[in-house]
Structures are given as C-alpha cells and as structure tokens.
Write a structure and sequence with these properties.
Distance between the termini: 39 Å
Protein name: Uroporphyrinogen decarboxylase
CATH topology: TIM Barrel
InterPro entries: UROD/MetE-like_sf, Uroporphyrinogen_deCO2ase_HemE, Uroporphyrinogen_deCOase
Subcellular location: Cytoplasm
Number of strands: 11
Strand content: 5-15%
CATH architecture: Alpha-Beta Barrel
EC number: 4.1.1.37
Strand order of the largest sheet: 1-4-5-8-9-10-11
Subunit structure: Homodimer.
CATH class: Alpha Beta
Order of helices and strands: HHHHEHEEHHEHHHEHEEEHEHEHEH
Radius of gyration: 19 Å
Number of domains: 1
C-alpha cells in the first residue's frame, strides 16, 4: 500500500480519540452537483459505465478532494452492485433510477439465490486499490455497502418504491422467505466489505437507506439484526491498522441506542435527530456522524456557516464527532456552498477545541 496517512483525523474521530478539529466528508460527495463529475460520466456513457470502470471511478472519487479539503474519500460505486452480481439484471433508466429485470417474487427464485462470487465484483476492488494508490496517503478511503434489508427492498420490489408494499407484504405473510434473502445478503455484505478492506479501504460504512420505513420491532428484527450479524463478520483490523465501521439508518433516530449496540464504531444520524440529545443518549459507546440537513446548502453562505456552528455547538467540545450531511448531497447544490461549509466546520471546530 502507498504512503503513510497524512491526515488521520477522520479515523481518530470514529474511534473517539481527540482531534484538533472536527473532520468532515459528505455522503454522495462525488456526484452530479460537480460539473467535472458530469463531464466524466458523459465520457463513460452511463452510470454503470462509470461505476464499473476502475479508472473512471478513481477519477470521480478524487474530484471533490481537488475542490475541497475534505477529511475522507469514499469509493465511487453503488449499493446495488451485490444484487447485480447475483444475476438480477441491474439497469439505470434516465430519470427513473435503478431497475432489476429479475426481481425476487417467488419461492423458487429465492431458494436459488446465492452469495455471489466476489470475483464478479473485481471491478469494485480494483477501483478501491487504484483510489487508495492515487490518494497517496492524503486522506483515508471509505468502502461501503447497502444494508441487507435495503438491498432486499430493491431485490424484491425490482427498483425504488414509494411504500415498499411488495417486500413488506412478504415480511408479514412469508417472513421465512424474507429471512432467507436477508441471510444471503448478510453474508454477501460481509464478504464484500472484507474484500474492500483487503483492497485498501480504511473504514467501511453500511447504508441502511430504507430501515426507517419499518415499524418498531420489525426494524430490530429484519434490519438491525442482519446488520449486526454482518458487522460481526467484518475485519476489525487489516495490515496492523484498525478499520472503523459506520452504520447509517435513514429515519432511525428512535432506535439510536439499539443501533449503538450493533458493534459499529460510529452511528450516522439523519437531519431529524437532535445531535446534542443523541450524544447524551449514546455517551461513550460510539462516535456520531452527521447531521446537517442537505437543503441547508441551498441557503446563503452566512446561513450555512450559522447552521454548521449550531451543530458543532450542539455536539460540544467532545471527541467522537464526524461532520456530515443527514443524507446525500443534492445534485442542485452549488459547489461554492460546499466550500463554505467545509471551511466553517474546520475553522469553527478548531476554535471550539481551544475552549477548556
């Protein structure tokens, strides 16, 4: 692996170690709000053409770091690479999002489902290795996966959904079928993230985008339990370095204490959660990541700075905070507004650290 890490602030914050300032990265930081990303995607010909080409994936992963002094890079990929490798036939229609040609709708299809051969995802691991090399120790690289439940939602529905009634009907009517899908997904997620770690990822994150759509009790049974099992299988160390784990359930604030018991080093928060209260609820069990409302970035630079300070004050002068958005950055965000946010988080948190 390449040079010694020059900026490990993000990793130390995840492990609740003291830092000189609050590190920041943004979910979906390499994306359509950047003109250079759109240019690279046009050269690639399609989203999948971009995501499945390690050279292009490396290029777009680095683009936000060239603009902003962010404290981590995140692999450019998609959460649906695993079900795609399972043979479900992934495609992306312009303006319509992901679609699977072969959704899991019957017992036979679910019975034949298997953990994919990780060799079929070699393009992801090659991208991780190339990105890590290109970073040359500038900042850590985050690998990621969708959660077993979130992957199941797409695999059963065949794409996105407003109400997830197909997968939820299966959950209520045939929980045994959903449990089989989740078991396969759990093993696949663990193998996938371990392969990313072996390829060079220095932290990993599980995106549970649709966990918050579940009722209380069912979230714990069908989403959190699967993530907890996956986390237990993921490498905690590689090449002598600690590999922190982050879990993010959008809409999961009411289950914060339970998520903190999953074994993750950090819990991501969406923008509906009170950050100060979350820190009190969690205590020293794990770090917290978040949680600026992404639409705050449409406001004036002064308002953006004010919101950043408000959240930093809410967390206070304590270890274990990684600043992020409460969800992915909007494609309509002005890049200059991102620069303002990163600058304010770094500058103001340095001042907060000086308060005894």
């Amino acid at each position: 692996m390449p040079a010694t890490l020059q900026n490990d602030t993000f990793l130390r914050a995840l492990l609740r170690q003291p830092t000189d300032y609050t590190p920041i990265w943004l979910m979906r930081q390499a994306g359509r709000y950047l003109p250079e990303y759109n240019a690279t995607r046009a050269r690639a010909g399609s989203f999948l053409g971009l995501a499945k080409n390690p050279a292009y994936a490396t290029e777009v992963t680095l683009q936000p770091l060239e603009r902003f002094p962010l404290d981590a890079a995140i692999l450019f990929s998609d959460i649906l690479t695993i079900p795609d490798a399972m043979g479900l036939g992934l495609s992306f229609e312009t303006g319509e999002g992901p679609r699977f040609a072969h959704p899991l709708r019957d017992e036979a299809a679910i019975a034949s489902l298997a953990v994919p051969d990780m060799a079929s995802l070699r393009y992801v691991f090659d991208a991780v290795t190339q990105i890590r090399s290109a970073l040359n120790g500038r900042v850590p690289l985050i690998g990621f996966s969708g959660s077993p439940w979130t992957l199941a939602c797409y695999m059963v529905e065949g794409g996105g959904s407003a109400d997830f009634r197909t997968v939820k009907t299966m959950m209520y009517q045939r929980p045994d079928l959903l449990t089989r899908i989740l078991d396969i997904n759990t093993e696949a997620v663990a193998q996938y993230l371990n392969a990313q770690i072996e390829a060079g990822a220095q932290a990993v994150m599980i995106f549970d985008t649709w966990g918050g759509t579940l009722a209380d009790g069912l979230y714990q049974r069908f989403s959190l339990a699967a993530m907890t099992r996956a986390l237990a299988k993921i490498k905690r160390e590689h090449d002598g370095a600690r590999i922190p784990q982050i879990v993010f359930t959008k809409g999961g604030g009411q289950w914060l204490e339970a998520i903190a018991e999953s074994g993750a080093d950090a819990v991501g928060l969406d923008w509906t959660v009170d950050l100060a209260a979350a820190r009190q609820r969690i205590g020293v069990r794990c770090a917290l990541q978040g949680n600026l409302d992404p639409t705050a970035l449409f406001a004036s630079p002064q308002a953006i700075r004010s919101e950043a300070r408000r959240l930093l004050d809410a967390y206070g002068n304590h270890p274990g905070h990684v600043f992020n958005l409460g969800h992915g950055i909007s494609q309509f965000t002005e890049p200059d507004h991102v620069a303002v946010l990163v600058d304010e988080v770094h500058a103001y948190s340095r001042k907060v650290r000086q308060i005894k």
